[in-house]
Here is the input.
Amino acid sequence: MLSEDRIGEECGVFGMYDLDGGDVARSIYYGLESLQHRGQESCGIAVSDTKGPKGKVFSHKDMGLVNEVFTGEDIEKLAGNIGVGHVRYSTAGSSVRENAQPLVLNYVKGTLALAHNGNLTNAPELRQELAYTGAIFQTTIDSELIAYLIARQRLKTGSVEEAVALAMPQIKGAYSLVIMSPRKLIGARDPHGFRPLVLGKRDNAYIFASETCALDTIDAEYIRDVEPGEIVTITADGQILSNKTRCIPEKEHGHCIFEYIYFARPDSVLDGQSVYDARIKAGRFLYKDDPIDADIVAGVPESGNVAALGYSMESGIPYGQVFVKNSYIGRTFIKPGQKNRESSVKVKLNALNHAVNGKRVVIIDDSIVRGTTSDRIIRMLRDAGAKEVHMRISSPPFLWPCFFGTDIPAREQLIAYNKSIEDIRKIIGADTLGYLGLNRLKELVDNKMSICEGCFTGKYPEEPPTDDIRGEFEA
Ligand code: SF4
Here is the structure.
């Protein structure tokens, strides 16, 4: 899907602890670059030296892409062998520097730096509770609430990992966390496992990352996924401690299926499931369940490409490219608002007349949110001479919002709400329109894996908030 009508992932996280004492900022930088698809609004790195003064943290964060925010000099200044990094996506109002992560919190036990991917569903209640007991907030993000709760629990308990375990029952919703204390690096995941988190190793350094593609980028080997509900602690003497007291039965897990359809990079493997394989399967199912005769099948770049390949494999229709994407558009030119949104599609994509002229085209996209770009895409293909345009979507229609770390909006904003597929087909101007069947979602991954498919069915693994609280504190 194109950015004009895209769904935002709330964030990507990365943490690294080099037990041999080497600096980690450069590797964190590259790790964050490979997680850039998970958030483009702001980013940051916080590091510390475990042999230096306890709790002295250097951090740098700002609005913008990783390669815009950090210069070589910035990275040089971030000296330390333990650190966390973050890339953030946010809804428009909250796109301010104060809300960039990692959050660094000083308290009596030292310093905590925290990077969070997800959304808490009880953030307003927690914020009120904490505010009434004297907390003063520097940001409007719910990640700060987690940091506060951990810091408070730490005063009552012997270790930071125990404090995380005590804080977890107080927070509801989706969270994959990487936490740096003066001498330990911790990765933790909410009990449902909405968002991914993996553990890797390079030489004598341990790494937590949102996706395996970040491990590949820095030449680290994958060790395993942090399990839903698990707290994994890397200690100064190289132990990997695991606390599973917050884990729940596997059948209650809720791995976000949309990670596989759209959010994650196709070269990542999350919870043992290849994102690429899931997308190939989605493309195959689209043809199996709703075949159409055509001359060429192509994806809306980039996110529709792998499913389009799967469609081609299943159907025998040649896979091709029908759009050229300009990847060098300055983001500052893309302004919110319908009028600008529409015109920017053309700036970003151009139809390949020679590939399309006189052809029957199947075009695959991962989803339709508001439908503001699908009609442009189809019109561009027709203008380029396409004889027929058949649109296939590698997910079922969005019918419900997401409260667990993405910004799938309220129902009224979703094109499929209150409309039939035929209505949508007419609006976007396709010859035919087909979506992935709901029954196919589980088949994209291991059937035994318990998934969240709430934005398609309205059935979430955890009770959603009664109000749409997501904009409340600009979280
Ligand atoms: S509601 Fe949709 S996007 Fe949100 S976690 Fe569930 S599957 Fe993922």
Residues 332-338, 471-475 have pLDDT under 50 and may be disordered. The domain at 272-457 is CATH 3.40.50.2020 (Rossmann fold).
